[in-house]
Design a protein that fits this description.
Length: about 270
């Protein structure tokens, strides 16, 4: 039976969605969580919409068996390709992640914004629908960040390969005078220090983490399933279907002491 104490479920095509998970537990410290890292199938960005939907269903089924009360699709590619299917299939609140191009369009002064995302997100119907309304007045410069997710999954955040790819992808955006950069993959916030070195201090970097956390709280309140028990220590489990070295390193300064990282085939 789902109750206020039931966990919030998250899934992503790997470890990047922990950038969303961190924001949620920071805003909602009483909530228990279960995070599913489908690193074995990362990245989702190069897969077909059908494959992404099938993987998203598998992940959702896993989380429902763990009695999750709400599910966050902590993956831009899975959201843009499978969120409608998931919401039509399951009778549970499901929150998705979209590239924050609308917020970027509201703050740009040069009318040039950059979007760094995966191929699967950029080619999705949902992304095209969201961006088409904005393109009338604003130039959106899309770049497929191919190769970045595997490097993050391999624990190579600060590698020469990662820096080289970022320079390759961001250089043309800088040449075209962007003043806002949208990170359209939940892996990419972990690259912000390197990105900032390349683009300098003035360009606004926008990701979805804080907005998703606020939306999660709003949905929990709406459905009256917010956990208000302040005396209990919230528990957090992360399941990963590859070796846990990279995710453990990524979360070495994690925001909670009550975290278990579990290697499990799924």
């Amino acid at each position: 039976m789902i109750s206020n104490n039931s966990p919030i479920g998250f899934f992503d095509s790997g470890i990047g969605g922990t950038s969303i998970w961190k924001e949620v537990i920071k805003l909602l410290p009483n909530e228990n969580t279960i995070y599913l890292s489908d690193s074995k199938n990362a990245p989702y960005g190069g897969k077909s919409a059908k494959e992404i939907s099938e993987l998203s269903k598998k992940n959702t089924d896993f989380l429902l068996k763990e009695n999750c009360k709400l599910i966050i699709v902590a993956c831009n590619t899975a959201t843009t390709n499978a969120i409608s299917f998931l919401r039509a299939t399951y009778h549970i609140p499901i929150i998705g992640i979209e590239p924050a191009i609308k917020p970027a369009s509201l703050i740009t002064k040069t009318n040039n914004i950059g979007v760094l995302a995966t191929k699967g997100t950029l080619n999705s119907v949902l992304f095209e629908k969201t961006s088409s309304a904005i393109r009338k007045n604003i130039r959106i410069q899309e770049t497929n960040g191919e190769g970045l997710v595997p490097l993050i999954e391999d624990g190579k955040l600060n590698s020469k390969e990662t820096s080289a790819l970022l320079s390759l992808y961001l250089g043309p955006m800088l040449a075209n005078n962007i003043d806002s950069l949208v990170l359209g993959c939940t892996h990419y916030p972990y690259l912000i220090p390197q990105i900032r070195e390349i683009i300098g201090p003035d360009i606004k970097i926008i990701d979805s983490g804080e907005a998703v956390a606020k939306q999660t709280k709003a949905i929990l309140l709406k459905h009256q399933i917010l956990n208000t028990e302040e005396k209990h220590a919230a528990s957090h489990r992360i399941y990963i279907n590859t070796k846990k070295n990279a995710i453990a390193a990524l979360l070495k300064n994690n925001p909670t002491k009550h975290l278990k990282i579990i290697e499990q085939n799924f």
